C-alpha cells in the first residue's frame, strides 16, 4: 500500500486485505463475531485489539475496516469509522466529543437532520450552539469564543449550494483550539481536499456519491487516529451505530467507480446549469460551477473549479409551478436521495425541509418554488430537453 498514490489509485486499491484465498474482489465477511483459538487469546484481545483482529461486528469487521481504510487513504486522513448512515456519522462526530457546557458554532444553512441534531439534540444535553451565516467569515469570527470546542458546517450547503471557506473558518477555529468538523457530502470526496485545507474531521453520508446507485445507507467519519480511535470509537461501539458488512462492501466497491461517476455527473450538471441560466421560467439558478455563483472564486480555489453534481432551481410561480415542473419531467425521478446514477428532483420546502418554520425557510432561501436537482448519469441532451420542456409546462 503506497501513501504516495493519488486519490484515483487509493479508491481502487486502498485498504484491501485478502483472505487465505487471495480473492481479487474484496470479500464480504458477513459475520457478527470471531472465534478465538483459546480462552487466553480472547482475554488478550479484550485487553488490546490489534489492527487485524476483531471481536464483534459492532466494534469492527474486516469488510467494514477495508472501507474505512480506503476512504481514509483517499481523503488524506489517518483513520476512519464507518457508520450505519450519514446521520449516525454527523451525530457520532459531534456527540462523541461534546459535553454539557461546551460551545459550538455552526453554519445555519444545513440539511434538515443536521440542523435537528445541533438545534434540538445537543442543546437538550446542555451544549450551547451559536448559528452563523456560514459564508460570512466576520460572523464566524464574532461567534467563535476562547471556549468554543467545535465548529460545524456543510462545505456546500443543502439545498442552496452556498460554499463555505474551509481554510478561512479553520484558521479562526484553530486559533482557539476548536475542532473543525465538516459535512462534505455535496463537495464529494472526488473534488474536495477538506483535510488538506484545514478540516480536522470530515463526515460523509456514503448513501450519496459513495454508493452512487441508491442501494444502501451508510456513513463515515474521517480524522486523526487519536480522534477516531480515542474519541469516536468508544462512543460508537457502545451506542451501536455500526455499518453492516454487506453495506460496507457496497460502499467499498462504490469507491472504485466514484471518480468516473462523479466527474461525469458534474460535467452534465455544468452543461445543464449553463443551458438553463437566464431561462425566463427561473427566478434564480444556483450552481457553484456557474461564473455568476456568489462564491465562484472559492469554488476555484477550494474545489478546483468543480461545481458538484447538484443544482437548485427557483421556479417562477411558487409551489404550484414547482409541482407542475416536477410532474412534467420524464427522465428524473421525484425522490429525496442525491448523488445517484438516476437524476433526482426534490421540492425541499415540502419534504426535506418541511419541519422548518416559514421564517426559517425564508432565511435559508428555501422558497416555495425551489427544486433541488441531483444530476445523474443520463445523457446530458436528454436531460436538458426534458427540463426545458417541464419549465415551459410549469409556466402554462
Ligand atoms: C443525506 C445527507 C446527510 C444524511 O445522510 P444519511 O445517509 O441519509 O443519513 C447528512 N448531510 C448531508 C449534507 C446530506 O445530504
Automatic annotation (TrEMBL):
<protein>
    <recommendedName>
        <fullName>O-succinylhomoserine sulfhydrylase</fullName>
        <ecNumber>2.5.1.-</ecNumber>
    </recommendedName>
</protein>
<comment type="pathway">
    <text>Amino-acid biosynthesis; L-methionine biosynthesis via de novo pathway; L-homocysteine from O-succinyl-L-homoserine: step 1/1.</text>
</comment>
<comment type="subunit">
    <text>Homotetramer.</text>
</comment>
<keyword id="KW-0486">Methionine biosynthesis</keyword>
<comment type="function">
    <text>Catalyzes the formation of L-homocysteine from O-succinyl-L-homoserine (OSHS) and hydrogen sulfide.</text>
</comment>
<comment type="similarity">
    <text>Belongs to the trans-sulfuration enzymes family. MetZ subfamily.</text>
</comment>
<dbReference type="InterPro" id="IPR000277">
    <property type="entry name" value="Cys/Met-Metab_PyrdxlP-dep_enz"/>
</dbReference>
<dbReference type="Pfam" id="PF01053">
    <property type="entry name" value="Cys_Met_Meta_PP"/>
</dbReference>
<keyword id="KW-0663">Pyridoxal phosphate</keyword>
<dbReference type="InterPro" id="IPR015424">
    <property type="entry name" value="PyrdxlP-dep_Trfase"/>
</dbReference>
<dbReference type="InterPro" id="IPR015421">
    <property type="entry name" value="PyrdxlP-dep_Trfase_major"/>
</dbReference>
<keyword id="KW-0808">Transferase</keyword>
<keyword id="KW-0028">Amino-acid biosynthesis</keyword>
<dbReference type="InterPro" id="IPR015422">
    <property type="entry name" value="PyrdxlP-dep_Trfase_small"/>
</dbReference>
<dbReference type="InterPro" id="IPR006234">
    <property type="entry name" value="O-succ-hSer_sulfhydrylase"/>
</dbReference>
<feature type="modified residue" description="N6-(pyridoxal phosphate)lysine">
    <location>
        <position position="208"/>
    </location>
</feature>
